Amino acid sequence: MLTEATELSITSVAVGSVYLTLQNIFSTLIGVLGYAYMARVITQEEMGVIAGVTMLCSLIQTGVDLGISSSMAKFISEDIGRGLDYSKHIISALILRLALVLTTTLPVAVSSTQVSEALFKTPVYSKILTLATVNVVFLSISSLLNSILWGSGRLKKMAIYGISSTSVRWVSTTLFLFNGYGLIGVIYGWIVGDLTFFTILAISTLKHVNFSRNVLSESIELLPSMLKFSTPIYLGSIVSLLYTWYDKALILMFLPIQQLGMYNVAYKAFSVLITIASSLGSSLLPYYGVMYGKNDYKAISEGVKHASKYTMLIMFPLASGLAVVAKPVITLFAGLQYSEAWIVLAVLSIFGLVYGILPSFSSLLLVYGKTKTILFLDVVSVIVSLAFFPLLWRLKLIGLTIVRGLSLIASFTLSFYYTSKIVKIEVDRRMALKTLISSSIMAVAVLVLQQTLQNNLMFPLYVIIGAIIYIALIRMLNCIGKEDVQLIRAIVGERFAKIIMKILNI
Question: If we measure between CA atoms, which residue out of 64, 57, 67, 155 comes closest to residue 103?
Fold first, then answer.
């Protein structure tokens, strides 16, 4: 029987969170460089096509997922906490996924001309769609394999593999674009990068799976119970997909496709916040899952309290800072032709302040098996969005941005309410106030500096000045204390910990 003696603590989770956050930082930097080059090589219309193809791929992935990918992390972490073999869960999921993804992508590939006409009102993008569906096969299997690493707490490997595949993806895309392949070169780059990701994940994870005949037969029997648990998550993921993509779908239906390219650039920049918040939340799931498997509910509550402190310290300044430097970010990121999208990024970033607290408890409803509640929250988010739909007609892209932000606020509020009914959630209010004050002062100072210099090329200076001001403020307000020393040492090592503690006056 396969077992893992994985002892997770809040410190090890924090270290894992750093790995995932670093992955997102490096992946984002790589993506920003690649995206900036791509935005200058292809047209706004082709940028809109990229968004449309991505939407279709997301639809296929969600359709074949059945909620299994999210559930797998819970199943695996619980099996580890109980000392059980998780091979049966993995094999069940792989068999089902392979069958579903092949039966879904083949018809789309065969009818790619009709799909192209339906999406883009022209058949010229049929080859693009065919290649994209091939890539979906690799992505779909990879998401399951990545859940194995996630559930078992191997977050360092998740980070390394993620950075590696992102690097290959964007380097390949850039090379294809540089050599004149145009839009189809982007898809070629996707395939090279995602095939690389699939290969390294398969090599790393499947060697830990027991493929004996007994396990295979038991895996088939396990499918009904897995699907029963995952079905509400699946329904929720469908609703979540609508929530994620409804804004872009509305642009496709009611606004010029160039507007989709504009909006997509702004949202891509905002996704930096989302990915960092997601990495913080994802890193906590293995810890919460193991503690839940051990029935140690007090440890979960304490974990939320400790985690919220660090998520606020990280996310509040990032959201505030991105809001005030939105214009230079968009201009440097995608070029002057997209400069009007800065207001979209600024508004999204202000609403993004909720990510200061959300990651600390975002995975708990899943850990506690409250899948129907997750579904309900996703449905409410979409309903809130539809309720404010008239703003689209009045304010165009800005109205759509406000709708997106309001739905995010509603989702956060309801998530906090329903999670607090099953587990005690404590947020350090004094720490929240200190970090909000520090972030606000930093943002105002950077905004004044930006308005004074009026030079987008001074963006690095804005970042440096903002960081110095924020660090000085959290030091003055004693946001980091001696109780954080052990965590700092675990993350950066003894040598760098001494430097950081000196800077923060600990």
Answer: 64
Mean pLDDT of 186-203: 92
Distance CA 291, CA 56 (A): 38
Q: In this structure, what token pair is assigned to residue 2?
A: 């396969």
Residue type, 33: L
Per-residue tokens: 485: 């020393």
Average predicted confidence (pLDDT) for the chain: 79
User: What residue ranges do the domains of the chain occupy?
Assistant: 10-427, 428-506
Place of tokens 């279709």: 56
Q: How far is CA 67 from CA 61, 330, 425, in A?
A: 10, 35, 26
pLDDT at 5: 38
Crossing angle for the helix pair 10-41 and 485-492, to the nearest 10 degrees: 50
**Across residues 239-250, what is the average pLDDT?**
69
Tokens representing residue 468 in the block: 């110095």
> Are the C-beta atoms of residues 357 and 312 closer than 8 Å to each other?
yes
Q: Cα(96)–Cα(91) distance, rounded to whole angstroms? A: 9
Q: Does residue 75 contact residue 151 with C-beta atoms inside 8 Å?
A: yes
The pLDDT of residue 279 is above 70: yes
Please give the Cα distance from 72 to 89 (Å, whole number).
7
- End-to-end alpha-carbon separation of the chain, Å? 47
Q: What is the pLDDT of residues 58-78, one digit of tens each?
A: 888 888 877 777 777 777 777
Closest CA to 445 of 463, 419, 457: 463
Please give the distance of CA 217 from its chain centroid, rounded to a whole number.
Answer: 35
pLDDT above 70: residue 218: no
How far from 230 is each of 68, 93, 404, CA to CA, in Å?
Answer: 6, 11, 27
Rounded (10°) CA dihedral 389, 278, 503, 443? -10
Place of tokens 């006056």: 505
Percent of the chain exceeding pLDDT 70 equals 78
Angle between helices 155-178 and 126-151 (to 10 degrees): 160
Q: What radius of gyration, in Å, describes the C-alpha atoms of the chain?
A: 23
How many C-beta atoms lie closer than 10 Å to residue 228's C-beta?
10
Tokens matching residue 205: 């994870």
Distances (CA, A) of 140 to 71, 93, 100: 15, 11, 10
- Closest Cα to residue 115, out of 187, 51, 173, 53? 53
Tokens of 362: 């975002």
In the prediction, which pLDDT does 3 show? 40
Tell me what the mean pLDDT of segment 219-245 comes to: 69
With cut-offs at 50, 70 and 90, classify the pLDDT of residue 7: very low
Could you tell me if 338 and 374 are in contact, meaning their C-beta atoms sit under 8 angstroms apart? no
Q: Name the residue among 207, 209, 200, 203 with its Cα closest to residue 76.
A: 209
Which of 10-14, 32-36, 193-197, 264-268 is predicted with the least confidence, judged by mean pLDDT? 10-14
Contact between residue 76 and residue 89 where contact means Cβ atoms under 8 Å apart: yes
